[in-house]
Amino acid sequence: MAGETTPPGGATRFIETTRGLLSYTQLAPLLAERVLHVESAIASETFAPRSLDADLILCFHSEIARDLVPDWAGRWRTVEVRVGQHQPPLPNRVPMLMHDYSEDLRVRMENVTGCQDDLLLETLAFAEGRLLSIHPFNDFNGRVTRLFLRELLRRLNLPPVDLVPTDAAGEIAYFAALNAGDNLNWKPLMNIWELRFEQFTESTS
Question: Is residue 4 part of a domain?
Answer without folding.
Answer: no
